[in-house]
Backbone:
């Protein structure tokens, strides 16, 4: 089914309050200044399904039902579906100015586990794959927003999950009548405030001594025992204030505390079959890291546009900065194109399409570097008011005592207000809450390098070189240690 933004907001209003910020319970996330802008941005994505230009990006024909559904409620069954995910991430920046986590990681978990759940059933006689299909249909029928929970607290990084002094450092489960109970922490989770359901998955692979941490499951955001605490972010108090100092966008993250959270059997998709934890994680990161190139590319498009507009507000023209602007677009195109290439070079995994490992993780490495250069170039174009935040506050700029003179000081020929708003936007994109998870979003670049290393056929390349110059294959062979 398709929901309008208003219908989506009503579904969130109906949920039990369990989200906190600044030490206080948020009674209504749809109106509280700490979360309302996120809810509005998610609602924009729901409304996009009814916009003739945006609908092909934000909807898809479901491979499970044959009906038109919100794209984030569908199975990514082929390369075009996963590319559609990337295009949606880019477009969400166009309408919201930021990533929109409620339509991102949760459905990626479900797609990533499509193949592994079927293999687990074949090996152990479990019913996880059918549970997963049924929940995906439920999410489609109810147009759920889904938050994906990957990152555990992890505790002492020198110890694995089974040896942590506090078991809650990794989310774990206990089997009970009719289902499982979840305990532990998931942290730095995007889009929780605006979701209907939370989907949890392993943050790493687990050995036989850590079966209790190998869990994939879904529970309502307001399930009994779930406590959500919004994180403190750059510019978050500005967002809660009146005026142009804070950009009212969709960025939000949270820590989640699970305390004996019951999940019925039909919403459990993995519980203890530890060898499949790494498989779902690998699939997830391949999908996520291929698509994130378009996510940061969308922000790069916004950066380029804002830089041009600010140059004009400063009395200058695009031509004066064309080389820098072209470089910004080239940087965007590298991550967008490498991600799409990873998708096109992918493979089918039991009905879900998984991008190529080496290319997807190579994209993550580029995403951890290139967008920062794009931001630097935008600061060069815009000037010091972006980098240092050298503009008085909205309250000062509109003061009845001296505001008129302050506004006059900011007028570069086209009006002060436009110049200030654009400067604040680029400041936010450069050093504020608008910085997406380029470096560590979806995992660190170091882990991406490890996966690129593991997916690269090094000896094949050596043998190619030897063949060109007629060196026998058994020469220059490195002994395995």
Residues:
């Amino acid at each position: 089914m398709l929901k309008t933004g208003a219908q989506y907001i009503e579904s969130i209003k109906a949920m039990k309050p369990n989200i906190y910020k600044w030490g206080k319970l948020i009674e209504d996330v749809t109106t509280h200044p700490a979360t309302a802008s996120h809810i509005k941005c998610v609602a924009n994505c729901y409304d996009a399904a009814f916009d003739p230009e945006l609908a092909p990006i934000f909807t898809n024909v479901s491979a499970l039902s044959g009906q038109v559904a919100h794209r984030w409620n569908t199975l990514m069954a082929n390369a075009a579906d996963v590319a559609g995910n990337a295009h949606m991430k880019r477009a969400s920046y166009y309408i919201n100015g930021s990533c929109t986590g409620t339509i991102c990681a949760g459905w990626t978990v479900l797609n990533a586990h499509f193949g592994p759940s079927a293999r687990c059933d074949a090996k152990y006689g479990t019913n996880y794959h059918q549970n997963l299909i049924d929940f995906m249909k439920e999410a489609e029928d109810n147009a759920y927003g889904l938050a994906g929970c990957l990152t555990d607290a992890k505790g002492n990084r020198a110890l694995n999950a089974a040896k942590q002094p506090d078991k809650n450092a990794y989310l774990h489960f206990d089997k009970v009548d009719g289902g499982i109970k979840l305990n532990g922490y998931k942290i730095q989770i995007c889009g929780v405030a605006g979701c209907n359901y939370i989907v949890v998955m392993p943050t790493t692979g687990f050995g036989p001594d850590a079966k209790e941490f190998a869990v994939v499951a879904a529970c309502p955001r307001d399930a009994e025992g779930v406590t959500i605490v919004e994180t403190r972010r750059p510019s978050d108090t500005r967002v809660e204030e009146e005026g142009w100092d804070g950009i009212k966008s969709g960025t939000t993250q949270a820590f989640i505390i699970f305390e004996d959270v019951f999940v019925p059997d039909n919403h459990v998709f993995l519980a203890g079959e530890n060898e499949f934890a790494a498989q779902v994680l690998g699939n997830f990161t391949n999908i996520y890291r291929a698509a994130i190139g378009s996510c940061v590319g969308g922000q790069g498009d916004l950066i380029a546009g804002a830089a041009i507009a600010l140059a004009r507000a400063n009395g200058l023209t695009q031509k004066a900065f064309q080389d820098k602007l072209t470089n910004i677009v080239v940087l965007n195109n590298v991550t967008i194109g490498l991600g799409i290439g990873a998708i096109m070079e992918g493979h089918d995994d039991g009905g879900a399409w998984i991008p190529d490992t080496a290319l997807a993780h190579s994209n993550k490495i580029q995403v951890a570097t290139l967008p920062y250069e794009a931001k630097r170039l935008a600061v060069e174009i815009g000037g010091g008011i972006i980098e240092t935040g050298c503009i008085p506050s909205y309250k000062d700029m509109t003061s009845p005592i001296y505001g008129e003179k302050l506004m006059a000081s900011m007028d570069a020929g086209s009006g002060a207000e436009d110049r200030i708003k654009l400067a604040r936007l680029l400041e936010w994109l450069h050093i504020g809450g608008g910085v997406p998870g380029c470096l560590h979003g979806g995992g660190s670049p170091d882990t991406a390098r490890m996966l690129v290393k593991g997916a690269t056929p090094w000896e094949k390349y050596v043998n190619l070189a030897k063949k060109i110059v007629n060196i026998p294959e058994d020469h220059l062979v490195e002994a395995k240690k």
Remarks:
- The CA atoms of residues 181 and 262 lie 4 Å apart.
- Residues 5-278 form a domain with the Butyryl-CoA Dehydrogenase, subunit A; domain 2 fold (CATH 2.40.110.10).
- The radius of gyration is 24 Å.
- Residues 277-313 form the longest helix (37 residues).
